Amino acid sequence: MAYYRINGGKRLEGAVTISGAKNAALAIIPAVILSGESCLLENLPEIEDVRIVEEILTSMGADISRTPDGSMRIDPSGISTFSVTGEMVSSMRASYYLLGALLGRYKKAEIALPGGCAIGQRPIDQHIKGMRALGADIVIQGGAVKARADRLRGAEIYLDVVSVGATINIMLAAVAAEGQTIIANAAKEPHVVDVANFLNMMGANVKGAGTDVIRMQGGRRLHGCTYAVIPDQIEAGTFMIAAAATRGDVIINNVIPTHLEAISAKLMECGVTVTEGDDGRDFFIRVSADKRPRAVNIKTLPYPGFPTDLQQPMMALLATAEGNSFIMENIFENRFNHVPELAKMGASISISSRTATVEGVEKLYGAPLCASDLRAGAALVIAALAAEGESTISQIHFIDRGYEFLEQKLRALGADIMRIEE
Ligand code: UD1
Questions:
Q1: Cα–Cα distance measured from residue 397 to residue 383, given in angstroms and rounded to the nearest whole number
Q2: How far apart are CA 33 and CA 181, in angstroms?
Q3: Mean of per-residue pLDDT scores for the chain
Q4: Which end of the chain is more exposed for a tag (fewer CB within 10 A), N or C?
């Protein structure tokens, strides 16, 4: 098992380039199934979750190859199974997108119930409700979701909770449904828009993605295409917070600044300098800090609110803020697994229900730490980079699921971080 050894206290300085968005990629790769034709996907992140989806599709009969620049060509025409129930599938959250894609293309699917980070109950009732509304018969049996439909017909679907996964999954199935589908109370996250753009590039008719009402005219013939995935908003936010936590000065290249407004606004409220720019090729954001941040309050909300995926990294920053911060986690009920680890470093944080009260301390100190999930791992890396002394972080396979070349990117910014393979 690999772990990180980090000697903290080094200011991050320089420039970093953000990779393609994990959560967009994990939906777009299975969405290729819908066209039945070959697609070329560019700007995919090289992360473990992408490798797992690639392996799942290959095991189903898709032909996948890489171009020299790292793009992925997927030819789904050889897919010969609609049942994907191995451990790889049940270990990851995004495997639920195979349900919408297979149901759309073949009108049948059997998928192991999705796993993913242990941050709450994470039901999929809204996915199922949406697909039933489109005409699918769905049962859950033996740890798998089994879906089948004679034909899919467009429907009006109101989501009871704003769910990124359900919005995208219903979009995938609805592309193949005859007539109009309306998803109301839809998620507005950047990757919802990215998936809609990809579907439209394949010939679908999806309108309104990015607002809370998405309208689709289904049943069109889709075709292969070339598509570049958007930059990862959460990876960008992680580097922004790491720059602030180490009182550093970092230019973050290949970002879409509007996707980062909630994070930029909170960092500025902390007293951190955040500027946006355009170098003629890409947008960038520069984050610089030279003193302890001021305490701020955070409420996680669906986009465009503060993203739950950055709640944990932000807490690592606020652990050394001047004053008390209140952090309310509104999306997932159990996303505070990083708190006992931060406490080992000297942080003073108490939890009551969904709210963490963070009493800022002057400094954190290195400690042996354990990552419990992907973003908890990112939070611990940030805390360790900012802390005095040495930290180790175990269970970094969680971090590998969502961050491309994390230690190389941090080392290039001056961090003292080593991956040790045991
Ligand atoms: C996705 C992201 C995850 C991110 C989250 C919120 C992927 C692979 N994962 O997760 O990184 O943290 O969005 O931005 O893209 N809910 C229901 N019923 C459902 C679906 C969701 O009650 O059928 C609830 C969830 O328990 C949660 C809330 O809705 O409380 C939002 O969940 P959702 O947006 O669906 O998150 P995921 O798709 O699991």
A1: 18
A2: 20
A3: 95
A4: C
User: What is the predicted pLDDT for the residue at 351?
Assistant: 96
Q: Could you check whether the bond before residue 68 is cis, i.e. omega within 30 degrees of 0?
A: no
How far away, in angstroms, is 330 Cα from ligand 1 center?
11
Q: Could you tell me if 117 and 398 are in contact, meaning their C-beta atoms sit under 8 angstroms apart?
A: yes
Q: Is the CB of 21 under 6 A from ligand 1?
A: no
The per-residue pLDDT for 123 is 86
Nearest CA to ligand 1 atom 32: 163
Rounded to whole angstroms, how far apart are CA atoms 1 and 395?
Answer: 7
Q: Hunting for tokens 């017909």 — which residue is that?
A: 153
Judge residue 75's burial from the number of C-beta atoms within 10 Å of its C-beta, 0-12 exposed, 13-18 middle, 19 or more buried.
Answer: middle
* Nearest CA, atom 37, ligand 1: 165
CB 213 within 8 A of CB 182: yes
Q: What is the pLDDT of residues 46-94, one digit of tens each?
A: 999 999 999 999 999 999 999 988 899 999 999 998 888 877 777 788 8
Out of 47, 53, 145, 161, mutate this one to test ligand 1's pocket (max ligand atoms within 8 Å of CB): namely 161
Give the burial class of 114: count Cβ atoms within 10 A of its Cβ; 0-12 exposed, 13-18 middle, 19 or more buried.
buried
Does the beta carbon of 23 sit less than 6 angstroms from any atom of ligand 1? yes
From first CA to last CA, the distance across the chain in angstroms is 5
Cα dist from 347 to 201, 245, 321, 364, whole Å: 48, 14, 10, 6
Stretch 165-180: mean pLDDT? 97
Q: For 210-244, how does the pLDDT look when each residue is reduced to its tens digit (9 = 90+)?
A: 999 999 999 999 999 999 999 999 999 999 999 99
Q: Assess whether the C-beta atom of 26 lies below 6 angstroms from ligand 1.
A: yes
Atom of ligand 1 nearest to the CA of 332: 30
